[in-house]
Amino acid sequence: MSGLSAFGIGIASAQDTPPVLKGEGNGKRVIILGAGLAGLVAAYELGKKGYQCQVLEARHYAGGRVQTARTGFVLPQLGQEDEVCDFDEGEYFNHGPWRIPYHHRSTLHYTRELGIPLEIFVNHNEAAFVYREAAGPLSGRAVRQKEVIADMRGHAAEILAKHVDQDALDIPLTQEEREKFLEFLVGEGQLERNSLDYLGTGGRGYLQEPGAGLNPGEASTPHSLSALLQSDLYGIVSSVSGFTQQKTMFQPIGGMDRIPQAFEKALGDVISFGSQVTRLQQNGEQVLVDYRTRETGESHQVAADYCLCTIPLSVLRGIENDFSAEFQSAIEAVSYTPTCKLALQMKSRFWEVEDHVFGGHSFTHNSETGNISYPSTGWQSQKGVLQGVYNFGSNAAQFSALDKSQRIEKALSVGGKIHASYRREFETAFSTAWHLVPENLGGWASWSSEARETSYPLLNEPQGRVLLAGEHLSYMTGWMAGAIESAWLQIEKLHELAMEAG
Amino acid sequence: MSGLSAFGIGIASAQDTPPVLKGEGNGKRVIILGAGLAGLVAAYELGKKGYQCQVLEARHYAGGRVQTARTGFVLPQLGQEDEVCDFDEGEYFNHGPWRIPYHHRSTLHYTRELGIPLEIFVNHNEAAFVYREAAGPLSGRAVRQKEVIADMRGHAAEILAKHVDQDALDIPLTQEEREKFLEFLVGEGQLERNSLDYLGTGGRGYLQEPGAGLNPGEASTPHSLSALLQSDLYGIVSSVSGFTQQKTMFQPIGGMDRIPQAFEKALGDVISFGSQVTRLQQNGEQVLVDYRTRETGESHQVAADYCLCTIPLSVLRGIENDFSAEFQSAIEAVSYTPTCKLALQMKSRFWEVEDHVFGGHSFTHNSETGNISYPSTGWQSQKGVLQGVYNFGSNAAQFSALDKSQRIEKALSVGGKIHASYRREFETAFSTAWHLVPENLGGWASWSSEARETSYPLLNEPQGRVLLAGEHLSYMTGWMAGAIESAWLQIEKLHELAMEAG
């Protein structure tokens, strides 16, 4: 990903394309546990190589956590009434993965190969708001992020520029570099070139925007540095966005489940739905998997030459198996992040029409509910689905203890501080607590540094004829690319085993 | 556009919705010169109020500069062979306006009212490149913009933070604010919290990206401040983007000409195409417009109660008229910006597949050709149309003196420094020099401060029964919103005249 790759010097890595598997599978049987993204990718690639794959999936649909809620969609959650989506026809919400950054080349490899049309996911919108209640003169006001960004950088550049100009700093630059550095600060901070004062900039917004006729616009006044600091607004500013959050970002047109649906179509009839794994064993010759058909309650056993198990470790640890004690303890070593999302269908897109916010996130003061995210689809249509809650860890655990009407009330109360029409336009909600979803028991694997050292490497190694795969076996936990690339790595190892066995 | 508007305190302005015209047009005849966006908007709104509008348009299609080049599209330009678009079926290029920022509420008013589906135009992509050849160790290398942005801000924050930490600066902050300011700098610059050193950040990119299995990724090393300064890369960094360039930005799905097409459909049969205005006169009773039918060469005269003239001033000054000498001299006072675009159809989307650039702009070293812009549509499809040239002023004037193959050669030579496959994948081009397009004679009006004072106000005033409108009568020259909002202002004045006349 350096500039060199622009000249093709970089070599396509394990993150770009599936492994090239030399030799053929020759009908060897592979049983794949779980039709999430890792399982789908494995079945797809191994199938191409002549392996005979069967996928056991507990749910009646493929995708694992890659789900999209539409009218009629039901998500059972432990200790809760079944969550039933009652959105209007055409409205939907990705309550699992929702974003594909441009550098997740493995994910984009498949959207391209399978012909899944993409649209932009707006992950940055400085015209959205930040709202804080802590203290300071900007407390309790919805402030556009661009005001904070322009002003914090403007004030900081002014301070630095004036000291550089007076030669008051200890910096290892030549005179020529110093002049260029000053030029940088003037541009970065939008400073007056002579006084080096920061007096505001059009980019932070206008009191009156320039228009037609005799309206040249009226400039706005910056917030003072003290006000921004006292009001704790400055934390939203960062030189570049974090790697996983970077533009350009995508989503499939129509919902994230377009991805598993495309795999399912390409795979044909290899997935056994409603098949819940109850036991995983192996001998020197084969792997034996017991499973229960959910609909009938009947038990079955299937034998295979190899097994790729993509079941989340949070669930796998509850399934009878004959792994070594060391391996079992490695499976136990990871924790899974509790996380909730609450989607709010609104009668109108007031955030677009009234508040001129098109996509992106508003940063709320409330970590119980987290930030508000606006839909990146259906621009200017009548209704829309907001992400009103996205929380993690203990906030999520506590939030999921509320009943649904309490969850909605929390979300409306936070959103109402930013958008006047938030509560009035609310129509219906879809609520997810991933740690309560029985097939997942958590949002994603969360590795401590210690467990990464002690347990993680072992879980990546084949155990006899069984290999694991999934986002949990990656340094991109919680992302589809982690699941895909883990599958790529593990089928390569599986194929090696099969080739060695001859 | 302040946070207050979030609570509906702001009043819908002249920039949000068309003027509310009290009373009815009662069939009064309005002749509108030009079916560009100003003319279309005027005909649409006046038609709603019962005026009898006729639009004279020299071209055989509506939209003015709002054009989209597709296969078969022909653009005559002075002193050139007709430019004929020979793109593949399905490929297209907006060689006129190409972007709708979220705050152009007047434009978005019509995309919404007329049901024109929008998609995101990616106007910022820090994964695109900057390339300079001036000097310094980074000269002649395509560098990802995010490296420059992260490193410049990181180095600047480090310098400032260390001086703040040592209390070495003269800044008017309390001790508590000072601590928060330090916290801001650590976050903004991604500094090590203890040493306050900038050592790089994941956001600038990795040597090896974190992946699956035993790949935690390998960090990259920042460019030194001296290297960035010497190589003149720092100029791309700015606190926030300029107002007109801000996210969220849109384009109509399928091409910008979807907008005039939607107006045309809504208007019905009021536009006389191929009708070139040759004279504009008025008496106390009516306006008389002479025009020539292009196809037959026949001359006609049409009479109306009022006239709204949206012809670019660059062209209007060459049409016989009976304006006052003062008004004529005001029409002469504005200059029109020469500007060229060159669209390159490429056999493959190598910028996406090889270089992982999805939309946005790469900043070249060459102001003769300007920046390279990547398409924000057709993601991951086979072919695509790049904007290989976008230049202005004297660069554009000189560029348009080249023949087409020379223009293409210039573009390929610049683009080839950034993308290895640029030249090899080139297929065909569509070239526009707006200053040579006879119906426009320039990209947009460019007002000097002096002419804004002396001439501009007069041009906004009704001259008897004639009013002007267009982007040239706005402080948003070159933008569709300027044309729309000028039309809104001027039809309000026209309606007032009509009401006064009774």
A few lines on this structure:
The structure is a homodimer of 502-residue chains. The first copy, chain A, is α+β, with helices and mostly antiparallel strands.
- Write the CATH architecture name of the largest domain in chain A: 3-Layer(bba) Sandwich
- What level of helicity do the residues of chain A show? 25-40%
Strand order of the largest sheet of chain A: 12-2-1-16-25
Oligomer: homodimer
Task: Give unreliable regions of chain A as ranges.
Answer: 1-12
Return the structural class of chain A.
alpha+beta
CATH superfamily of the largest domain in chain A: FAD/NAD(P)-binding domain
The profile of the biggest β sheet of chain A is: 5 strands, parallel
Strand content of the residues of chain A, in percent?
15-25%
Q: In total, how many domains does the architecture of chain A comprise?
A: 3
Total number of helical segments of chain A?
Answer: 15
Q: What is the CATH C level class of the largest domain in chain A, in words? A: Alpha Beta
